[in-house]
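Need a sequence for this fold. Nothing fancy.
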């Protein structure tokens, strides 16, 4: 059943912040909600959570109209909201009780997630003494401590180093495997590509691209080729009228407009005895597609 939005709109002071958008999330997984600043993502999220009332359309969760009481949700906002002068354990307990948990269940959940996120040693410290990354992990705990069905994560990896990013990624995978529905909003397109099967991109409140990410990418022609060789091939690239996007240690990423030219370049390199250790024709990345659709 999952989450459904049908022709949802919201207007502020005569300007439509969200304009007739629709989406469905029918199975557990991670759904990507994308757009530039001011595109309408936060407004959409707040309507899904029942924080803001929609002006038009329908929003339902498991067949029932969404309101603050009908959805067991977890929300990690982009604007962080932990209390700097309060002990971490105390505020986690406070957020858990706000969600209706009793003290014993809340304590058990705090200990469980603190161990998974490797923040056990910080539970009795005030939040202001934690690094930005560890504060982010505590904020993430407030979103999942009560075992929500629907979890909305807005820039979840902000401020995390690679080690902590990997910890959080594994937990998100674990949440999906346990049947959770996750909406992720991020400007880190690599992260969205890693997690999301389906996406929606907003621009000025309107949907400009929506659907299965693999199918969207497959609909685009290849736009680059990666070639690793044992020598400089700048002259070959110029000979075929191609553009070198990036080169390091004879590892090239070259812009192409059609695959045939890339194969001609490969054949020429082989005929001239250039050793080619890698040749891969690549589709546009989500970052490429996002810039095309949203960028001015």
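Here you go.
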């Amino acid at each position: 059943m999952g989450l459904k939005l049908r022709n949802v709109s919201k207007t502020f002071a005569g300007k439509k912040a969200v304009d007739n958008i629709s989406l469905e999330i029918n199975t557990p997984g991670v759904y990507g909600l994308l757009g530039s600043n001011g595109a309408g993502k936060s407004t959409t999220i707040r309507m899904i959570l029942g924080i803001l009332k929609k002006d038009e359309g329908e929003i339902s969760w498991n067949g029932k109209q969404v309101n603050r009481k009908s959805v067991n949700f977890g929300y990690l906002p982009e604007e962080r909201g932990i209390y700097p002068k309060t002990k971490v354990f105390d505020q986690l307990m406070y957020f858990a009780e706000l969600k209706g948990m009793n003290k014993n269940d809340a304590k058990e959940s705090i200990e469980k997630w603190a161990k998974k996120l490797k923040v056990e040693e910080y539970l009795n410290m005030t939040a202001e003494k934690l690094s930005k990354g560890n504060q982010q992990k505590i904020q993430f705990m407030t979103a999942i401590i009560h075992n929500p069905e629907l979890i909305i994560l807005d820039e979840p990896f902000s401020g995390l180093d690679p080690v902590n990013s990997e910890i959080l990624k594994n937990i998100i995978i674990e949440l999906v495997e346990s049947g959770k529905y996750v909406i992720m909003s991020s400007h880190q397109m690599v992260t969205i590509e890693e997690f999301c099967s389906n996406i929606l991109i907003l621009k000025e409140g309107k949907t400009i691209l929506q659907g299965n990410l693999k199918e969207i990418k497959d609909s685009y022609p290849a736009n680059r080729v990666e070639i690793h060789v044992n020598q400089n091939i700048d002259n070959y690239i110029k000979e075929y009228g191609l553009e070198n996007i990036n080169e390091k240690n004879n590892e090239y990423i070259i812009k192409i407009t059609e695959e045939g030219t890339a194969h001609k370049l490969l054949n020429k390199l082989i005929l001239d005895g250039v050793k080619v250790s890698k040749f891969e024709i690549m589709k546009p990345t989500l970052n490429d597609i996002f810039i095309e659709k949203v960028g001015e």
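For context: DSSP finds ten helices and 14 strands in the chain.
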